[in-house]
Structure formats: structure tokens, C-alpha cells
Amino acid sequence: MGLLEGKVAVVTGAAQGIGLEIARTFVAEGAKVVVADINDEAGAKAEAELGGADVARFVRCDVRDSAAVETVIDTAEEAFGPLGVFVNNAGMTRDSTMRKMTEQDFDDIVAVHLKGAWIGTRAAANRMREYGAGSIVNISSLSGKVGLVGQTNYSAAKAGIVGLTKAAAKEVAFKNVRVNAVQPGLVRTPMTEAMPERIWEQKMTEIPLGRAGEPSEIASVVLFLAGEMSSYMTGTVLEVTGGRLM
């Protein structure tokens, strides 16, 4: 029996990167997963890689659109059964110093990360409270704890996700719906590996464990929060950073 045997999960932004690794981990632990993403080509590939329509479905979804998010949950429930896990992972970056950042860059990041997480949390909680159980996991960032240069938009949105998580957790705990968050630090992905070497090395000096994290190390913590091993945890924010910026 896997840790998520028989569970139905939705993971946003799951066509690639950390989101795909979360979906992959969930399937390996017995869950049926809906991959929600705006990238049609990557989403179709993810569905096939995860095992096809019997265990995974790709549904195109812009997380800023509440109707689209509801459609994703409807698809998950029609295909696999009652929703048990929802992961708000979708995101992007528009890095720039505050002086150069446009209002559109700020608005877009807040809309995808913070409003998107709010829409997903609200929609998932509304279903789960009717079932008397469920786990929602929101992906924040170390940037939302300490603030990083060039990320006033991203840091603000990721800090907002922490507040959202704690407030939502208090609202739905009486229905046995749990809401927790994960704050990854430097994780080895194609995006981070494209950093200039001097920036990468500077970040590495801040990590006591002396290395970047792997997507699977984020996914395993999300798995913990999604399943029954964390059944007495809600409103919690777990840092997965190798000890960086403690």
C-alpha cells in the first residue's frame, strides 16, 4: 500500500519541474493525479509519462481563472473520485529590481502565485469540507521568508501564501481539512542551473548542507503533508532549504 493509495489529487503547474516531480511521487504512492497546467504539449507528455489516463489526466488550466480551476476538480472527480489532495504549485518569475519592475510584472506574479493559490485553496476546501477530510499544500518559497533582491513581486506573493495558508487552515480545520505550506530554497532545475556561475556560487555559500536541493526532495515533503503521516499538522510552513538563511 502506498502512502496515498486510493487518493485523488490535483497538482497545478505539474507539466514540468517540481510540479511534475510531485505528481510522479504521488502516482508512485498510489494516487490518481490530475495535472493542471497551461502548457498543452508538456501536459500531454506528463500524462503519458505518469502512466496514461488510468492514473493521470492532463487538464489545461490557468490558475487565475476560478472557473478553470473548478473544471479541473470536476474532471478529477468524474475520472477518479472525490478530491483528497490539492497542491497549489503553479508559478513563474518576472525578476527585476523594484526601480525597473513594471506594474504589470508585479500584478502578473501576484495573480498567478497568490490569487491562484487562493482560488485553488478555496475551490479545493469547498469540496473537501463536504467529505470531512482533505489536504491542501501550498508551495511558497524561501523568498517569501527573507526577501530576495530583484524579487519584490515574487517575495510579496510567496509571503502572502504563508498568510493565506494559516488563515485558511483556521477556517476549515473543523471540517478536518488541513492546509499547509512548503518553502523550498535553492533547488536544482533547468531554470536555476541557467543562473550565472557567480550567482550560483554565492547562493551555495549560504547553504550549510553545501548543495542545492533536488526536485524529489521537495516532492517528498509535499507527500508527507498530503498523507496521513501529517494528520495532526495544519497551518504549518516547512522550510526545505538545506539550512539556508535560518
UniProtKB/TrEMBL annotation:
<dbReference type="InterPro" id="IPR002347">
    <property type="entry name" value="SDR_fam"/>
</dbReference>
<comment type="similarity">
    <text>Belongs to the short-chain dehydrogenases/reductases (SDR) family.</text>
</comment>
<dbReference type="GO" id="GO:0004316">
    <property type="term" value="F:3-oxoacyl-[acyl-carrier-protein] reductase (NADPH) activity"/>
</dbReference>
<dbReference type="InterPro" id="IPR020904">
    <property type="entry name" value="Sc_DH/Rdtase_CS"/>
</dbReference>
<dbReference type="InterPro" id="IPR057326">
    <property type="entry name" value="KR_dom"/>
</dbReference>
<keyword id="KW-0560">Oxidoreductase</keyword>
<protein>
    <submittedName>
        <fullName>3-oxoacyl-ACP reductase FabG</fullName>
        <ecNumber>1.1.1.100</ecNumber>
    </submittedName>
</protein>
<feature type="domain" description="Ketoreductase">
    <location>
        <begin position="7"/>
        <end position="180"/>
    </location>
</feature>
<dbReference type="InterPro" id="IPR036291">
    <property type="entry name" value="NAD(P)-bd_dom_sf"/>
</dbReference>
<dbReference type="Pfam" id="PF13561">
    <property type="entry name" value="adh_short_C2"/>
</dbReference>
